[in-house]
Specification:
Layout (H helix, E strand, L loop, with lengths): L8 H15 L1 E2 L23 H20 L18 H11 L2 E2 L7 H14 L2 H13 L4 E4 L15 E5 L2 E12 L6 E7 L10 E7 L5 E6 L8 E12 L3 E2 L5 H19 L8 H13 L6 H29 L7 H24 L16 H12 L4 H11 L22
Parallel strand pairs: 3-6
Antiparallel strand pairs: 1-2, 4-5, 5-9, 6-7, 7-10, 8-9
Helix pairs in contact: 1-3, 4-5, 4-6, 6-9, 8-9, 9-10, 9-11
Bound molecules: flavin-adenine dinucleotide (FAD).
Amino acid sequence: MTPMADITLEVFEKEAVDFLDANAEKRPPEKAFVWGEGSESPFGGEERSRDNELKGVELAKAWRQKKFDAGFGWVTGPRSLGGRELPASYDRLYGQLEAQYRVPGQSCFGIGLGMVAPTILAHATELAKELYLKKMWRGDIIGCQLFSEPGAGSDLASLTTKAERDGDEWIITGQKVWTSGAHYSDIGEVICRTDPSLPKHKGLTGFIVDMHDPNIEIRPLKQMNGGTGFNEVFFNEVRVRDDHRLGDVNNGWNVALTTLMNERASIGVNGGGSGGGDKAIFDRIVAMLRHYGLDNDPIVRNELADIWGRYKVASLTNTRAMAKVRAGQTPGPELSIAKMALTANQTRLGAFVSKVLGAKIQADTGEWGTYAWNGLVLGTPGLRIAGGSDEVMRNIVGERVLGLPKDAGIDSNTPFNQMRVN
Ligand SMILES: Cc1cc2nc3c(=O)[nH]c(=O)nc-3n(C[C@H](O)[C@H](O)[C@H](O)COP(=O)(O)OP(=O)(O)OC[C@H]3O[C@@H](n4cnc5c(N)ncnc54)[C@H](O)[C@@H]3O)c2cc1C
């Protein structure tokens, strides 16, 4: 049901502009890109060291706190839990306004607010909702997603991390992996096996854990692009109170699906409708081709136009999926298609830029604006796995769009729509 607004959109807009004017610097109008000037990185930032990353998290938290206290942090959330209970159109408007200002990047909140918080809202006890939701939306705490394990990724229901009941508590033992942001998170959503005698989708339960618990060990994983964005997380008999359980005992699969559905929606929304093909990237490529005297080469032009066209189609698919999300509908396979298109296009773009730059994209010659592109080549393989691997996405599209026979999966009892899509 759409909440009733106690403030008109016009008054809300004025309040938001006043707040932003008083607290942030307005972005200057974009200048035409000139080769050799400005940031060398096409994507606006290099992989950061953990120290720099933590400084960024502090800035991001400070901005969220300021914005929450001014009434713009949880615009659509229930009033009883600290939100303003306004329709989504108000939140969208605030997002559009904020985008016109320079504010600290908010990506550290993506998983917590995009996936974990909606799951807490849907499945947690009243106590846990009160303890965590306002703090999450105010940026006081950050949440992470502890699903994948060394032996459970696409086939998430095979997970083996166990939770055993001990009176009013549960004892969690096992290992998670690829946990993005675990090192700066305060709470985590973990799915555990609580009854190994039941079929694998039926014996799971979700919990909220304190990431600062001394029995949780977090080890960074070094990526080939130099970053350490995710971690191995070890649970060494971690005690969790039963009031931190998410949903009913052995109903953790439904809890996980809530998170995964929100993940798919947040991938679509984060696509921002651009399908990843921002104009600024193409402006930079055109300037690079001019710089190397390749802008009139018909083969180069043809290839770039082909990639641009593919990005445009992906962008329209994203826009369609986002329209469904905003209308409160569950997007169907559009997000799988959009994700597959994004990764295929990034791969094409990486190959194209590699052809233009040759060895300079792999070995740092010091020449301006060349080696910085290697983030695209080294980052794309991770993108093909995160958010559901290419193969899993193809299964979804094959089965749900093309009506092909269902994939047998690892065991024939695994229906396609229960495959992990994060
Ligand atoms: C950047 C990034 C961030 C991540 N962040 C998180 C996080 O915060 N929290 C978290 O819990 N997890 C996270 N993950 C993990 C991610 O969810 C898993 O990597 C993903 O689900 C795939 O699982 P896997 O790595 O175990 O590969 P597997 O599932 O073992 O797959 C191995 C290969 O087999 C293929 N395959 C598997 N099943 C099928 C099938 N039925 N048909 C055809 N091919 C198949 C896959 O496509 C892949 O090529 C992240 C991953 C990445 C790359």
